Amino acid sequence: MSSKEEEVSEGGFRPIIPDVSQIDINRVMRKKKNEPDFIPHNQGGRDVMAHTLVFTGAMWVGGFAGGGLYGFQEGWRAAASQSFNVRINSVLNQMTKRGNKAANVLGTIAFMHTGASWLCSKAEVEEYYNSRWTTPAIAGAVTGGLYKSTASPRVAVLAATLGAAGSCFYSFAGNYVYEAIFGKAKRF
Questions:
Q1: Would the pTM count as exceeding 0.85?
Q2: CA distance 37 to 117
Q3: What's the helix, strand, coil split of the chain in %, to 5?
Q4: Exposure string (b/e) for 64-77, b if CB count within 10 Å is 16 or more?
Q5: 166-186 burial: b if 16+ Cβ within 10 Å, else e
Q6: Measured between alpha carbons, how far is 158 from 165 in angstroms, rounded to an integer?
Q7: Which of 38, 116, 141, 152 could form a disulfide linkage to 160, CB 3.0–4.6 angstroms apart?
Q8: d(CA 45, CA 57)
Q9: Residues with Cβ < 8 Å from 142, sequence gap 6 or more?
Q10: CA 104 → CA 62, 108, 109, 174, distances in Å?
Q11: Which residues have a Cβ under 8 Å from the Cβ of 138 and sit 6 or more positions away?
């Protein structure tokens, strides 16, 4: 028995390596001059997961920043002592308290609004009512009403009304602001 047969019979691992000496690497790597490698492009804009991640993340960060600034002001004024260390501790406590609360509220609202907008677009509600205000109004009303649904019915209806108005304002005034800031015609 040869040494190779002994090695295989004893359970030793012997990898099989293919012969690649006949492959021309220049032929494999050849590329046409004006052809891009790969550009993923979605003709319909962002998909629902991209919208959800972008808007929820942006609102969470904005809420944390805004709540943190409010917490900074509140912590600086309400410090128990004029000592710098006490003031810094008070500021940090209030920033994390206010920032986390605002971030979670805005992130939740953005997540719910994105989901409601997607459901409206999948149900094609704009075709039934023949108005471009339909999707943002319904999505805002559903978001506001659902967010405050554990409160009284009066508060839930008020939140739904404010949500519809805010969503419509954001949907149509936001395009003008985006064009003024970034110089682009559409946000999506």
A1: no
A2: 34
A3: 70, 0, 30
A4: beebbebbbebbee
A5: bbbeebeeeeeeeeeeeeeee
A6: 11
A7: 141
A8: 18
A9: 112, 116, 160, 163
A10: 10, 6, 9, 23
A11: 116, 120, 125, 164
Q: Calculate the alpha carbon distances from 186 to 119, 135, 146, 172 in Å.
A: 22, 17, 29, 11
Interatomic CA distance for residues 52 and 110, integer angstroms = 8
CA–CA separation, 81 vs 112, rounded Å? Answer: 42
What is the gyration radius of the CA atoms in the chain, in angstroms? 29
* Separation of alpha carbons 165 and 133, rounded Å: 10
Residue 55, pLDDT > 80, answer yes
Please check the confidence at residue 10 and state whether its pLDDT lies above 70.
no
Q: Are 142 and 160 in contact (CB under 8 A)?
A: yes
